Amino acid sequence: MQTYSHWIAGEFRAPESGEWIDTIDPYRGEVWARIPAGNVADANLAVAAAKRAMTTGPWSKLTASERGRIIGKIGDLLLTHVDRLAELEVRDNGKLMAEMRGQLKFASDYWRYYAGLADKIEGSVMPIEKPDMLGFTLREPVGVVLAITAWNSPLNFFALKCAPALAAGCAVVLKPSEFSSVSSLEFAALTKEAGLPDGVINVISGYGGDVGPALVEHPDVAQITFTGSDVTGTRIYEAAARHMKRVAMELGGKSPNIVFEDADLDAAIGGAISGIFGAAGQMCTAGSRLLVQNSIKQEFTQRLLEATRSIKMGDPMDAATQMGPLSTTPQYNKVLEYIDVARAEGARLIHGGKPAEGPGIQGGHFIEPTIFTDVSNNMRIAQEEVFGPILSLIGFEDEAEAIALGNQIAYGLAAGVWTRDIGRMVRVSKALHAGTVWGNTYRTYSYMMPVGGMKRSGIGREYGIEAINEFLETKSIMISTAATPPRNNFVPR
Ligand code: NAD
């Protein structure tokens, strides 16, 4: 069993508390590594290292192009080590090896994309209306960034937070989830190999409730970028407000996946399945509310059931496995509770509904792919995020009802629309309150397309050029160019 340490100021460092957290392999149900239980002292060390890096360290003196070259090398090194790092992630979160490998290749591209953007962050010169006056803007790094992330995609989140922050010239303290910190702690050392100066990225692990508030409330943290539940996000937002810190929030969802009668049904079934049973439903963007037009609901349900019956559960390292275990014990228990809630509310179970059994899945947190029908949109099972393989099937009559049901939710992260009618596709996409709408596809990402939530799903955007804005301040500079500068008086010019 391996023991990991914090990564602070360019070196591994044991926790000040001398205490460790066991990290569990969700497939085998066994402890496989130990990570530091961070506390206030660790938080202070990490923030101090980031502040030094930004103020007096070599990072603050690099040109934007030099920063970009280092960020690009981090992406290259991630790709070189993709198999090893993906394996660490699978052991920590139980997701499929094939998915984690793909995700890390994506993360490598993500680093390279922001490498290219580092020296394209430009201010403007304004043609201001005042004579003998030059007015221009500078775009400056916001300061020390705190990144706190969820357990489902650790190194992807590492890239989503750190690549644009570094491109903007910031230094970062990253606190990954206590359930899956190993890959981030190991990868942090590779950033040094890429030439990143000490203290620009610091990674500390620990329970959110122990180390989180110390980081969030630290006076030298300027910006908090968070990925996790809306409950924790609200807590952090409130604390940040007390200190007037900036926040970016990537939170939960309860996304509608809407199938119209004219859709390519084979494709829509594939999208429905991958939208809720991919990653065992542990996706913020899970298409957990499947809205199907009443005219095709019966046929669609039959075909969906057939496809669901063939899902192969098993060892996430096995290339043939389609669905792995739930990542954590609390998550496993929460999903089982929601199955009871749905039953009690009168939803009709038509597939799954209990822990999965069978050869190759003993000891893990497996739950059968579960489908409820006769769900009404105001039931808890249709309104609350489960973050597991539980699908709610809801019928609708026409386009207007589909849009109304789609939007009748506190969240606004993603949505899917399946139709061959291009006009309808555009109308419905525009009408849905969601940060991302997928048309005739689901779970498709490009590092160039902004991702983020409306309503309770979050604040701000990751991916694409927009993500850089989260880490920049705009400074306005106005300089008199007059040979004899005007003498000030008591009326603004
Ligand atoms: P969580 O909110 O329980 O924890 C997220 C992080 O917050 C962890 O690192 C945790 O240690 C930390 N934390 C907990 N309490 C804290 C506190 N008081 N102060 C500071 N930090 C604290 O979320 P989770 O269970 O790890 O992840 C699942 C959630 O994340 C789901 O709601 C899912 O939708 C969401 N998510 C969103 C996105 C997105 O991009 N929108 C992506 C993945 C996951």
Automatic annotation (TrEMBL):
Family the entry assigns: Belongs to the aldehyde dehydrogenase family.
Tree of life domain: Bacteria
Positions of the Aldehyde dehydrogenase domain: 14-477
Active site positions: 250
Cited InterPro entries: Ald_DH/histidinol_DH, Ald_DH_C, Ald_DH_CS_CYS, Ald_DH_CS_GLU, Ald_DH_N, Aldehyde_DH_dom
Keywords tagged on the record: Oxidation, Oxidoreductase
Protein name: Aldehyde dehydrogenase
A UniProt-annotated Pfam family: Aldedh
Entry's Gene Ontology molecular function annotations: oxidoreductase activity, acting on the aldehyde or oxo group of donors, NAD or NADP as acceptor
